[in-house]
Amino acid sequence: MKVAVVGGGIGGLAAAVAFHQRGWQVEVLERAPEFTEIGAGLSIQPNGLRALQELGLADRVRSAGLADPLAGIRRANGNWLIRNDVDDLKRRFGQWATVHRADLIDLLLSALPARALRPGTEVSQVRPDGTVRHGGTTTADLVVGADGVHSATRRSLWPDIPGPRYVGYTTWRLIAPAHPVTESAETWGSGERFGYVPMPDGRVYCYLMANAPTGTRIGLDELRERFADWHDPIPALLNSAHEVSQHDTYELPELRTFAAGKVALLGDAAHAMTPNLGQGACQALEDAVTLAAAVDELGVRAGLAEYDRTRRPRTQLIARRSRQVAAPAHWTSPPLTALRNAALPRVPSAFFERSITPAYTWTP
After folding, report:
1. What percent of the chain has pLDDT over 70?
2. Which residue in 153, 289, 336, 351 has the most C-beta neighbors within 10 A?
3. Full domain range(s) for residue 7
């Protein structure tokens, strides 16, 4: 049996590893000239680590350095809006880890044979019979469309589905040199926010979001000025950074199905979501191990039906929660932000736990 995976990011490579380990012939078609990931840090939450455990790779991620969950959310002046019980979260749900995205790509690549990898291959069309066109032609018993939010696979088989929608804010990511940061936190202002996560090697992964028209481009100098009066260590992290990447933030409308013919959508191609819960990569890892198990054990037709039945409701729920959980951070009305700042510290912790529990409790 052969599987062709369109897209060599985290989800696509995880799917390739899962099928390879089950004895399938694997071919990964990646548009870029090499398999790598520019970007920055990545928080692997307990559900993501369980998916990596299914691939036999979780121990290597853990050995690189475990991490704590988000300590909470603060105001620009440093006062806490929400304070999480970090030890209780780990006790209830499991371990967290932080890695560089490129390191996770390298780990997944190490579990695949070189002959399975076809970089520099841009897919133009995918057909429901398992045919993939890319300058040449690949045929397979199963095609996995893991080619991101602007998926060619999705456009080929679901041409009438609305495309990705801009959510109203843009996102920057950077890695700052080593700083004495001992916990991760996110800070909310008015229509903008800043999060930071210590990495195992002492560096700090930072992410920033701000309301902006699509296509707006803002560089590091302007970001330093914009966040100059926010609480420590935010100004110092920005001042020490050397480069930043920026991407507008998109999500997909809910699809009616993740499968058609011999083709399945996976990761952002199926359910691109806002990064507010940090679940994008974790959900793609879940998709990968679930798809491989279902198809290998039930056959392609029944396996795809089972994959769609189990993954679509879950990922769409997580996407809705992700959209909702950070909406107050992007309010710009002074009365609304004042109400938010007054109300959030008084909300019982159980309210926030209910919003995150579905994400963390998944098991293969």
Report:
1. 99
2. 153
3. 2-66+112-165+252-328
How far are the Cα atoms of 41, 100, 193, 209 from residue 223, in angstroms, in the given order? 19, 22, 11, 11
Q: Given pLDDT bands bounded at 50, 70 and 90, which one contains residue 354? A: confident
What residues pair up with 126 in beta bridges, in sequence order? 132
The verdict on residue 225 lying in a domain is no
Token reading at 248: 């507008």
What is the pLDDT at residue 39? 67
Tell me the per-residue pLDDT of 253-279, one tens digit each, with 9 for 90 and over: 999 999 999 999 999 999 999 999 999
Q: Domain of 146: which CATH number?
A: 3.50.50.60
Full-model pTM: 0.95
Beta carbons within 8 Å of 84's beta carbon, 6+ residues apart: 69, 70, 71, 72, 349, 352
In a domain, 247, yes or no: no
Instruction: Report if residue 198 sits inside a domain.
Output: no
Please spell the DSSP secondary structure of 39-69, one letter per residue.
S-EEEE-HHHHHHHHHTT-HHHHHHH-EEPP
Query: Terminal CA-to-CA distance of the chain, rounded, Å?
Result: 23
CB within 8 Å of 222: residues ≥ 6 apart: none
Give the Cβ contact number of residue 127 at 10 Å: 17
| Residue 290 included in any domain | yes
Number of domains in the chain: 1
* Assigned token pair, 289: 């191990």
Q: What is the largest CA-CA distance in the chain?
A: 60
Over residues 218-244, the pLDDT tens digits come to: 999 999 999 999 999 999 999 999 999
